[in-house]
Task: inverse folding
């Protein structure tokens, strides 16, 4: 089954007080605000003293504003997509209820909490290094959502680098990640994170990761090199699914 053929999002089941929105990176937001100031100042300058400088200022201001506008369009699209991807991951994880689950780059917790709702005796652990320029959440937002979703007793949050995790070998039954792997770094960094995922996964365990296509090349390669059964769906945005040999 292609995980990208996802069922419609059942928004009614999500509490309206939850906060899963992706955010505009602060550097784009600051640049955009400065762009607005430049546009306003240029418009006023043009009205007071007609000259070419006002027009140049307007162009500069618009250019400064563009990254924030483009990012807003992308994040709005991604916010809707995240629920679809989360539900697809939960379906394909096919959880029994006693698993140990790891979410790489957990952010506001959307994917981890979807999995945690299926747990009875299992545990979900999310790791992240919250970066204001990554567009994700914060620890406060994570725990707010955990309580709203009713899974706070089944999850943990750790400040941890995916490239050097402190977990013991073969600690987790399932590793998930959504829209986070491209933040890990360059190809070498993503390869290190991929090797860590292989290390902490139990024999017979599953990996389910969704992100922009280029960011998952190293993960797919490392899993194949490690003898995983691997499937990949999509190009621009990809889902990579792997199962470790038992």
Result:
């Amino acid at each position: 089954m292609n995980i990208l053929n996802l069922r419609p999002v059942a928004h009614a089941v999500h509490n309206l007080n939850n906060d899963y929105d992706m955010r505009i990176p602060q550097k784009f937001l600051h640049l955009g605000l400065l762009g607005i100031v430049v546009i306003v100042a240029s418009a006023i300058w043009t009205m007071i003293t007609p000259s070419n400088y006002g027009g140049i200022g307007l162009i500069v201001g618009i250019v400064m504003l563009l990254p924030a506008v483009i990012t807003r369009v992308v994040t709005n699209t991604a916010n809707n997509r995240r629920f679809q991807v989360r539900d697809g991951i939960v379906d394909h994880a096919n959880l029994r209820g006693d698993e140990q689950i790891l979410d790489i780059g957990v952010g506001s917790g959307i994917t981890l909490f979807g999995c945690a709702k299926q747990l009875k005796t299992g545990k979900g652990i999310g790791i992240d290094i919250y970066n204001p320029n990554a567009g994700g959440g914060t620890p406060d937002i994570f725990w707010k959502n955990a309580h709203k979703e009713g899974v706070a007793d089944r999850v943990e949050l750790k400040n941890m680098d995916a490239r050097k995790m402190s977990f013991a070998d073969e600690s987790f039954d399932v590793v998930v990640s959504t829209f986070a792997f491209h933040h890990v770094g360059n190809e070498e960094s993503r390869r290190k994170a991929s090797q860590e995922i292989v290390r902490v996964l139990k024999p017979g365990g599953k990996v389910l990761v969704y992100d922009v296509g280029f960011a998952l090349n190293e993960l797919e390669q490392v899993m194949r090199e490690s003898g995983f059964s691997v499937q990949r769906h999509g190009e621009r945005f990809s889902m990579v699914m792997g199962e470790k040999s038992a």
